[in-house]
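call fold target=Probable 5-dehydro-4-deoxyglucarate dehydratase
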Amino acid sequence: MTTAPLAGRLDGLLFFPVTAFAPDGSVDLDTFRAHVRAGVDAGAAAVFACCGTGEFHALTPEEFRDCVAAAVEETAGRVPVVAGAGYGTALAVRYARLAEEAGADGLLAMPPYLVVADQAGLLRHYTELAAATSLDVIVYQRDNAILTPATAVALARTDGIIGLKDGLGDLDLMQRIVSAVRAEGLDLLYFNGLPTAELTVPAYRGIGVTLYSSAVFCFAPDVALAFHRALTTGDDTTVNRLVDDFYRPLVELRAQGQGYAVSLVKAAVRRGGLDVGHVRPPLSEPAPEHVDALMLLVEQGRAALKELGA
């Protein structure tokens, strides 16, 4: 783990690698390492290991620990490594401590498993998780873990909690959260965590949410980086062209299958030449024709970049 504060290091495109599995279903650490290494070499600003795209839900604690340790070794301090942590509080704390032992720089706290908790319960859950290790925590808002502005303010006051990642997509709620935290003189990092964040990044930037995770970076880092560069430099022509030719069709394709936010990404990584294996149950493989359609979209996005000289 590096000594530099995590909040100051999360500036750029965030990489959420898939977890590689061998033909027998076991974790393939060598291939996972290659995937992480390629992402960092391509220009990722951080590695979020064993999170949603990395099938956290399907990993045993031992597999999780080994993957996080592998990511830490491969990044070698060049960029921070943030690990997932989830389920109920006791298990989330266990995963957090395993991540700390493996050398991670921070945690992405995913929603508690199964139950729909009230705000007091969610606050207690994240507070206990933050207190369990020295790692900084980013809370992932989605599904059964939706926060009110008052709860977000309480989290911003909690030692160890540095950020909020939004996977809900309610811009009205996010604006109220940002406003409430700011009005109290507090700071949080905010992340757009929707499955294809690039489609909504322009809207999120309007309320001050500039960081985002890019699933596209897993299989087309050149396209993802070109979009990020255009966004940050005000190149609206490139941003709009990639939204029209690549990201909007990608979202429409992703909507054609359950679990495609993970399985379609993983299939695209395989098609790109790195055999990361298949998804684990309960996820299923995407239809071959949908993978074909995705690869055509990648070609279309690259053609647009070439035409624009971006």
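return ok
The CA atoms of residues 168 and 262 lie 17 Å apart. The first helix runs from residue 29 to 42.
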